[in-house]
Amino acid sequence: MVDQRRIDDQHWVDSGVAAKHLGIQQRTLYAYVSRGQVRSVPGEHGRPRLYSLSDLDRLKTRRDARAGHGAVAAGALRWGEPVLDSAVTAITPRGPAYRGHYALELVADGVRFENVAELLWSGYLPPTRVSWPRIAVPLASIAKLVPYGAKPLDVMHLLVEVAALADPQRADGRPDAFVSRARQLIPLLAAALAPDFAVATVTRALGASSVAEIVARALGLDDNAVGALDAALVLLADHELNASSFTARVAASTEADPYACIGAALATVSGPRHGSASETVAQFADEVGAPDQARATVRALRKKGQVPPGFGHPLYPAGDPRTAPLFDFVRAAIQRSRAPALELGRARTLLALVDATTDAKPSIDVGIAALMAALGALPAAGPGLFAVARTAGWLAHAMEQRATGHLLRPRARYTGIPVT
User: What pTM was computed for the model?
Assistant: First the structure.
């Protein structure tokens, strides 16, 4: 069974330790819990409730901010206080807002992913349909380098490097140059979702008119899936200073080219604690088995002070708002029942886990894993879809960082052998 604590730093302590950690009385701790600032779960065998150590650390960092800059810096990189200014995305209780536009409202209004990407890059939301060009790369030669069973993220690394090598002007750091390359790269990355990068499938996918359609064709899905995929792309397009976006900014601060910024971010996405978390969620659902095993599994985890993988997002104590529209698409796809039995079973199990887990709410990683399963796609497609969408955010952050002219170079507090 997957240990959630290894994935989301879900460490839990009792009320005495929690209160001591913050230097407060227990009644103050309970007030934090009631306001949704600290998560708690029932203790094992009827013991008192346990409290999220990561939430306590975040509160402690905010309190210590009054003590001076050193305290802020010490915890800022661990879900702590903001470390830099950005006009790209705001995190709100209603979910992310891209340059003043709520992602949920963009989805509800049917705004396409391409238009949202343009909004992230320029601050302007095009009112009409946006079309992007296709980049010319040697698909057949690339396909020969892709081994059987390769995951989309691995293929994406290869595509980015090939595109970079073929671009003699890749060092052009002007915003227009960044955007021009992004418009060509994102459709190509979407085509990488084709299993084993089969040339015929990739070629057909790249002939589609939108990124969501490219994804659908690459995964072998029909047009019924395009709306759900477009919504998922919009919801995933950016999420403030997440690990991969921060990595892209670090690369951009060195004046690295856009391909290098994307490559650095892709490497970060490969980790199961970030963009590849949906694949871990899918694996957990397979371990649970049938939907009727969900409640027993959740009870067993609760006794250990744990929750299922993908549940409980530190930025959304009341629940990740991005999941609701995805689960609507999941239920609709299940009703159509066009996915293979294995994937449909996984989707139903994930929905059962959502219903059974009352101590923590599902993150978008659970929604993506369930959507991929309901549509009949393999689990590895989830991280791939994440990367395609988030490339829009990566380039927005990279351009913003380059505009500051500052090198991102935090300092470390040395704790090793004393130096005389």
Answer: 0.82
